[in-house]
Amino acid sequence: MVGYGADAGLVSGEAVELDIRAARLGSRVLALLVDILTQFALAVILVTCAGILLTSLVGPGALDGAVLRGLQTVGVVLVLVGYPVLFETLNSGRTVGKLAVGLRVVRADGGRVGFRQALTRSLVGVAVEWPGLVLPLLTWAVGVTVMLTDPRGRRLGDLAAGTLVIHDRSPAGTGYLPTMVPPLAGWAATLDLTRLDDGLALAVRQLLSRTGTLTRDARRQLTRSLWAEVAAVTSPPPPPGLPEWAYLAAVLAERHARARRRLARTRSVTSALWPELGAAPAEAPGPAAVRPAAPALVAAQPAVAGSGTSNGSTR
Description:
This protein is mainly α. The chain contains 13 helices and two strands; from the N terminus they run αααβαααβααααααα. The chain has a two-stranded antiparallel ribbon with strand order 1-2.
């Protein structure tokens, strides 16, 4: 099912659009900053290791400038190209920065990114995006413009490789909470909701929580249909002049409030009759943590039974 933030346009094999958000400029820049720090640390490690190895093999000052420049080029390629290609291929489309921010590179069809796609987007990125070896200022402006104007926030490397960056960790929704419409609070307090069953209440809840995903005509038709069903099992009738969704919201909010009050009363009675039940969650787990109240009733039995026996036997 499609959520409010689903804009990646990924469709499952059953032709259902998935609730996945495409990564935009802000989150991708943050992931890039983490990757730059990681690449810098990787470059320092490579330079240090290469210096120690070459010094031990050929001695200090034995290499000429051409060899050093060649080694530098190899190191730059490994850091700028090898790092993202290796991580995106072997770590399901996630570099260190993407893993920290909660992003993932996938194919345009939602599949796992492969070596070819990772290499293509990395080469294009190094050439015209970051660090941008070809006209860096101009290509940076073009790259940002493409990301801002693309419906799914793709950059030039994504367009060339046929990939997409998505949010791997979507925030968990809190669910729909019914809210009382203030002009209907007095009317809702007098409602008789005994005939409003759970199935109809659930249908109202689902409709109100999905109004943003429905077209105007569909929303209007469903709201009128559900209100006709709710009005048939509730009384008194509502004050005129408000739309059907307001009546449904008021009915659902009042039902929710009454359920909360019943639960609070039940808990207060339970706590009064069995205090250990309310204190049990705060105690440490273990056999001696919860002391049932039943032994108090058993202890009173010998006094009653003992009045009819000479030796206290309960046989």
